[in-house]
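Aim 2 progress update. The chain analyzed this quarter is reproduced below.
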Amino acid sequence: MAMVLKAGARFRSAVCDAQVMVVKAPPGEHELHCGGAAMLGGSAPAPEGLSLDSARAGGTLIGKRYVNQDESLELLATKGGKGTLALDGMALDVKQAKQLPSSD
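Predicted structure tokens:
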């Protein structure tokens, strides 16, 4: 289910405890998944019969920021879970800290 992602929007996984907040979003409609199932916005009930896809169970760590390849999407994990976050079928990576210049 494709949706327009907006900064500040919150989503939760349908198959694990993971919850995220959108920090930065690419334009257009996209599919946001966790653990192999579409993420839910607002108070939408989870569909019956869904389960965590073992191939997409790399985990989501609370407090970490997740980005796509070109960093046009950035999510903040507000609650950890067992599922792997993905945008349009591509797994998201933990954002690496930027190296600060030395003050020598």
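The chain has no helices and twelve strands. The mean pLDDT is 93. These observations will guide the mutagenesis experiments scheduled for the next reporting period.
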